[in-house]
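fyi for ur records
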Amino acid sequence: MTMFGSPWFGSAGAAFTIDQSCRFDSASSSYFSTTYGSAGNRRIGTVSCWFKRASIGTQQCLFNPHNSDADQDQVLQFNSSGSASVTDSLSIWWDGANYGDLSTTQAFTDTGDWNHLVATWDTTQATAADRNKIYFNGTEITSLVSWSGGAASYPTQNREFWFNGAYTHAIGRRTAYSGQHYFDGYLAEVISVDGTAYAPSQFGETVDGVWIPKDPTGTSFGTNGFHLKFENASDLGSDSSGNSNDFTSSGLEAADQVLDSPTNNFAVFNPSDTSGTTLTYSEGNLKAERTSSSFAQAYSSMSFDSGKWYAEVIFDTGNSDAGIIAGETNPGSNRYLGQDSYTYALYPGDGRKVNSASYSAYGVGITKAADGSGDVLGIYLDADNGDIYFSKNGTVMNSGTAAFTGVTGPFRISVDSESSSFAVINFGQDDTFAGLKTSGSAAASDDDGYGKFYDTIALAGYLAPCSKNGGTV
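which gave:
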């Protein structure tokens, strides 16, 4: 299978696996918070997390401890185009005099891959540049400026931070600032350490030249450290460090525990890969919505020229379709899926198939419902032979006959929408369709045991588009 872009970093594989992540949706104002009753070590600490961004170009906070004064907080966040530093750079901004101010000159704009971040602080160090460090996928970032674009500054020796203090600590938003700067994307293995500045090798390792997750067993978390694995869907903020430093969630629900993880990366919609008209993306780039007239199309972050692949989608009551785009050309503005010679779709209204703007009989209509109670449309792509099938609620249409045959790739799975309509897709990471449905009675994995689909995959050999099945972005 050939993909656009660079290979996904986790394809090397490892004995340690991460089975889930937590999806943060900025539109839902989702975040975690807790308030420590007493202070730990405020001079030395580490934070580590694996992240997969869903949107770029806005300020998005990862970690934020703050005291009761709205002007006194500390933040680890991605920057926006409105900041003086590089758009989508990463900042450690210790608010207040002599706390330090660091921003990378590197931008982090990847919305299809999992990546690893470690930030450490140790203000007992004699050398200023040793008091704050940032690592990306195991490598220290040394090209640093201030948030305003000037010279980077470091905390004074023995300065005490808000981190690990008896203050509120938030994950996924900036609490003490207007706008909140909610994070948009996925987080996994979120760790904070009180009293030790760990090297990235505590949490990751290089295998076959690729930085991958490592079992953090043996980590000394200290008094106010925590380890959020998101293992319990009914209690996503449960701390696994042994400290019982549990977090309270807001704007999150059980459906936000998804199978997408640093050791099995699933396809999502790619907001940077657009037709001539754009959509609004949410729910970790699994929901695509057109809020005005004119058609726009969304495409999977993974592209295929071999193998057999499956995804399923639901629609609201507006005008949306689903299917496949073949080749690397994207349509212009206001083009529906199936209008061009290289797009192939099923029209849900009556089950006709469409290509080159030509409709012909094929299957049956799909019920649409904004509350998720409608039918599930299955999309089957045989990239080896160029065949495309569609199913309704787990039954392949037209007695199992392909809608299209002999199509030439590479292929991307696609939907379109117009006039305030949306589609929600499941590539195998979330069979609740962002909470619109209860997890399907099938809860079906593919033939290799990966993914979780609302309906059983009706054709043999079709797989979830994920890295453990050979998928890269």
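The first strand starts at residue 21 and ends at 24. thats all i got for now
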